[in-house]
Design brief:
This protein is of the alpha+beta class. The chain has 2 domains: 1-85, Roll (Flavocytochrome B2, Chain A, domain 1); 88-122. It has 6 helices and 5 strands. The protein has a 5-stranded mixed beta sheet. A hairpin with a 2-residue loop joins strand 2 (17-18) and strand 3. The longest helix has 20 residues, at 102-121. The protein binds protoporphyrin IX containing FE. Protoporphyrin IX containing FE is lined by residues 24, 31, 33, 36, 40-42, 46-47, 50, 55, 58-59, 62, 64-65, 67-68, 71-72, 75. One of its GO terms (cellular component) is membrane.
Amino acid sequence: MPTLTNFYAIQDLSHHKTKDDCWILVGGKVYDVTQYLDDHPGGDDVILAATGKDATEEFEDAGHSKSARELMEQYCIGELDPSSPVSTYSEKFMQLTKQYWAVPVTVVGISVVVGFLYLRKK
Ligand code: HEM
């Protein structure tokens, strides 16, 4: 069955950062919260400050209730395209770390073995 999910690239979010057109990215999902900005108990400024990037951390830090999480689902318009390139430095760093974690682990491992052999020889 074909899926009806809309996929957005992280760059798409940067075109929706205003009070009249506001999208946020939380937990891999994209939400159009334009209509909700004025009603948000935490104010519109916190949401506007979290646009154009992954706002999951800010959202979780605010300790949103279960009802807040249920409420937000009605504003969901799609998901982040998993193949879209990541933009922030921390995301890039995390991606590289996941990809190349074996390199520092191997270097440390070899150093430990060489150090051990060297000390035994003494
Ligand atoms: C559709 C998205 C969102 C919905 C439906 C939503 C809903 C709510 C609700 C209902 C509350 C009241 C407390 C609670 O029930 O948890 C709240 C508080 C709050 N929200 Fe959100 N929120 C959304 C997005 C965000 C985002 C993206 C941020 C941060 C960037 C944020 C920051 C806050 C903060 C800081 C409070 C605390 C306000 C206070 O206690 O003074 N919210 N939100």
